[in-house]
Amino acid sequence: MSDLESEVEMDLNADLGEGFGRWALTDDQALLSVVTSANVACGFHAGDPATMRRVCEGAVARGVRIGAQVSYRDLAGFGRRAMDVPRAELADELTYQIGALEVFARAAGAAGVAYVKPHGALYNRAVRDEDQAAAVVDAVTAFARAFGRELPVLGLPGSALLRRAATAGLPTVAEAFADRAYTPEGTLVPRTEPGAVLHDPDAVVAQALAVAVAGEAATVTGAKVAVTADSLCLHGDTPGAAALAIRVRSALEAAGVTIEAFA
């Protein structure tokens, strides 16, 4: 094991609470035993009050940090359809979602919501769309005014979202993906294109190791692209997600990567 490997730290996050009523998509309890940060659906793309409560209680029981995964108001499309929502209206809807999760997080015994991460179409839109990125930052700053603390914002390195968050004085966390394909520009391949999601478990593990240890990922062209990350996302809505998450974590730890929540 090299000195470089022994100094690497990585947060593991997963999207949780992605169900509604009797419908459940993610194996929340199994994933909570693997990850260090939980991106909890806040009701607009998935999630309902009872689900939010259960995930928060499970996260507190396992020492996992609770993050608000905010979205467009798009239950039917699982938050993956791009929408043109005016900045002020979108900021209000995102503030609403963060505030709702704050109550459940505190009721479960946590100090409150620990960070914010956009979901789906909003996440991808905020990479380049200054207006939509600004709406996310507006919501987080509104939360700061109401509760007296600034929440870190998770996003893609180089995105308009992280740049605007940093300009607003908010902490930022660069995120990478173990199971998503990258473009040569370092952005995610749209889900509408073939090969956007990595389904081969070996490929997912290999990409997680490459990101954490070498700071790079393979692109759809076969070339490598530099990827900076403090947090690695493991999607919870893919078949066998919990077993795959265990494999990824085990491989990272075997490579000398310390798994812990981002600072």
How would you portray this structure in words?
- This protein has one domain (3-259): Glycoside hydrolase/deacetylase (TIM Barrel, Alpha-Beta Barrel).
- The protein is globular, with a radius of gyration of 17 Å.
- Strands 1, 4, 5, 6, 7, 8, 11 and 12 form an 8-stranded parallel beta sheet that branches. A two-stranded antiparallel ribbon has the order 2-3.
- Strand 7 (153-155), helix 7 (160-167) and strand 8 (172-177) form a beta-alpha-beta unit.
- Helix 3 packs across helix 4, helix 4 (87-107) crosses helix 6 (130-147) and helix 8 packs parallel to helix 9.
- By secondary structure, the chain is an alpha/beta fold.
- The protein has helices spanning 3-6, 28-32, 49-62, 87-107, 120-128, 130-147, 160-167, 201-214, 241-254, and strands at residues 9-16, 19-20, 23-24, 37-41, 65-70, 115-118, 153-155, 172-177, 216-218, 224-226, 231-233, 258-259.
- Mean pLDDT is 94; it is low at 1-5.
- The protein contains 9 helices and 12 strands.
